[in-house]
Amino acid sequence: MLRTRLKEALAAAMKARDTIAVATLRLILAALKDRDIAARGKGNLAGIPDEAILDLLQSMIRQRHESIDLYRIGERLDLAQKEAAEIEVIQRFLPAQMDDAEVESAVGETVADLKATSLKDMGRTMAALKERYAGRMDFAKASALVKQQLT
After folding, report:
1. For residue range 95-129, what is the model confidence (pLDDT) as tens digits?
2. Do the Cβ atoms of 90 and 24 come closer than 8 Å?
3. The domain containing residue 62 runs over which residues?
4. How many secondary structure helices (H) and strands (E) does the chain include?
5. What are phi and psi of 45, to 5 degrees?
6. Which stretch of DSSP H or E encloses residue 109?
7. What's the whole-model pTM score?
8. Which residues contact 25 (CB under 8 A, 6 or more apart)?
9. Which letter does DSSP use for residue 137 in this model?
């Protein structure tokens, strides 16, 4: 379970005195706790599932990429490097990411499987991709490919 791996990694990082990993893992666990609390309000007492944790990790990576871009524009390379180090820590918990060719192939297969023909089918196609490739696919790229194939 991903939640357990995160807690174990925090303990190991604390023992190793890896300050970046400790800080990043604490941020992840805090965000996870916030999502768990929100899920309890909806009747889910066990917390969010691993797929939702993977989504959380991917959104944290996206946020850090945006921050890196802004820090580079502002010539704050020290902060950009810190964000890049945090991305490396977060990526340890994601499955291997699909390359562009694999994403393109997966999108083509899914469009064919669902017999999607127009932009009206985009939501259904993206939902199927998220179900099949959670945590392994960059859905921003996939969305652009789906849109391209359906128009």
Report:
1. 888 888 999 999 999 999 998 888 898 999 999 99
2. yes
3. 2-91
4. 7, 0
5. -80, -20
6. helix 100-114
7. 0.76
8. 6, 9, 10, 13, 89
9. S
Q: How far apart are CA 116 and CA 28, in angstroms?
A: 36
Contact 57, 93 (CB under 8 A): yes
Q: How far lies 108's CA from each of 41, 49, 135, 151, in Å?
A: 38, 28, 19, 13
Residue where one domain finishes, among candidates 74, 91, 108? 91
Same domain for 113 and 44: no
Query: Is the same domain home to 73 and 115?
Result: no
Question: Are 28 and 60 a contacting pair, CB within 8 Å?
Answer: yes
Question: What DSSP state is assigned to residue 94?
Answer: S
Residues 6+ apart with CB under 8 A from 4: none
Whole-number Å distance between alpha carbons of 145 and 55: 20
Query: What token pair was written down for 5?
Result: 């791996």
Quote the tokens at residue 134. 């959670």
